[in-house]
Amino acid sequence: MANKKFVPAISVIIPMYNIEKYIGECLDSIFAQTFDDYEVIVVDDCSKDNGVDVVKNYIPKFDGKLQLLTLDENSGGAGKPRNTGLRIAMGEYIFFMDGDDAITPTAFEELYKAAENFPADVIHADNCYLAPGETVTTDKNLLREFKRDGAAVNSETFLSDNLAERVQTIITGRMRCEPWHYLIRRNFLMEKDLKFSNLSIADDVLFSFLIICSAKKILQIPNTFYVWRFRQNSNSREVLSDVEKCMHKKAGDIFRSIDILESFMDNFELFKQRPEFKYSVFDYFIRHIDYTRILIELYSKVPPPQLDALTRRELAQVKDKTALTAFFFARMNVFNLNIIQLQNQIKQLQEQLKAKVQ
After folding, report:
1. Which of 33, 74, 89, 336 has the highest CB neighbour number within 10 Å of its CB?
2. Which residues, other chains included, contact 13 with Cβ-Cβ below 8 Å and sequence gap of 6+?
3. pTM of the model
4. Segment 189-217, tens digit of pLDDT
5. Distances in whole angstroms, Cα of residue 31 to Cα of each of 97, 105, 271
6. How far, in Å, CA of 126 to CA of 177, rounded?
7. What are the helix (H) ranges across 4-48?
8. At CA 179, angle to CA 163 and CA 62, rounded to 5?
């Protein structure tokens, strides 16, 4: 009789890109779990450091529970590595981690207990810990809890089944969008064919929106177990030496993401009957991408008229999307006005300071 194929309770998927300094601490926190029914899949996105060697050294320690995959070429984001890991994952549930973060020792035990006691497609934990410095600790006594006012639940609570209420929950920021806030039933992802879109911007925001709208049952839990190491621009791989190329890439990703959102929302009567919900989602998405940061950096490199001309050229390439173009251009104009106002305020402050000095 053939041996039964190993099916772990949880598959942990970790994208890796140039995090040699941190991946060891991440894997250590997984190895220290009180719950050991898991597998770990690390997907390297063509790192330029020695992260692959670090992970290889951990493989014997995990005794068959740790796999290392390497992509053929750099994807430019975390989406493709996550999808690659998802394709081979065998677990009943999927948990996405960032390789520079960590989890407290009882994290998987808490998550799986909630999943078994309250059957749901998605388990969502809103709060997390902020790492106190470069070295991550999983000792809760040394960690600072990062809470969002009015967002977290106090006990296990099912999110409303009403789609309009769910959309309001998303666009008002009452649910977090980072993938590591979720434990997701793998069969649900397979049935709905949900995956990351390989965008260089806000891929996690888009993914979270898709799963929140698609899941039949979403359980919110008050547990705090994830240790987030906040690193400025840790996910940014952009080089802004070529302003035009950068604008084209970012704008292209925005239009592609909006197309994905619009195609997805067209499957729901709510968005057909209530277009204001559709545009509120567009607005939420535009506000949560890192395009604002890119534009601020671009403003320091080129005059506003040149940047405006580049924006118009990108918008001119959008076909049969009049409403989207109008919406996006309106958002861009608001951003441009805010930048000009901020520049004027800085200029006034500089003049006032200069006058005081004189």
Report:
1. 89
2. 41, 43, 82, 85, 86, 89, 94, 95, 96, 97
3. 0.82
4. 999 999 998 877 778 889 999 999 999 99
5. 14, 9, 44
6. 9
7. 23-31
8. 140
